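User: Teach me something about this protein's shape.
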Amino acid sequence: MDWEKQEKKRLNPEDFSSLGKEIRKKNLLTIETIAILETQVDDMTAQAIAYTMEQLLQHGALDVYTQAIGMKKSRTGVLMTVICPCDRQAICEEILLRETSTLGIRYRFQERKILHREIYEVETIYGKARVKIAWRDGFCTVQPEYEDCAKMARSHHLPLMQVQEVVKLAGENLLETIYSNLFSNPPQIKI
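Assistant: First, the predicted structure itself:
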């Protein structure tokens, strides 16, 4: 799912009581079936591989990664792995066959467990940014959204890591505010 399309949430103090009920009712772990596609190539440029990865992500792949491998006849090559929802398997296969030099694709289905997560917008000294909060039983994590942080780092001429730390801190502060208004014993924030 594309970050741009996900709903941004802003919290007001009056939201806290309903949010607490919502958090307690949520199943924090979801199991879903995904497709994993793999192909090996030994004759593509880095630019062509990068373009293929971009196309796959734009068309619904959840993740795409490559690994350097040794192939037959001692050739160096690249293993491209695509993780996608089952309903995006056909389009991802089409992209792999169209954009790479592969002669075939291996695929398998796997189950994965994913944590419940929500995206919130936080205000920082550098501007607004989104954070992803993953809820767990007893604690949660806060992850700054890369694109927002990169944009702020460029516009303020700052190191990316510095901006990410500020955004993460703002997300953690938001989380502490939420929990202090909901629970007498707030869960730990994983850093």
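Now, about its shape. The helical segments are 16-25, 46-58, 89-99, 146-156, 160-182. The chain has a mean pLDDT of 85. If you'd like, I can walk through any region in more detail.
User: That's plenty for now, thanks!
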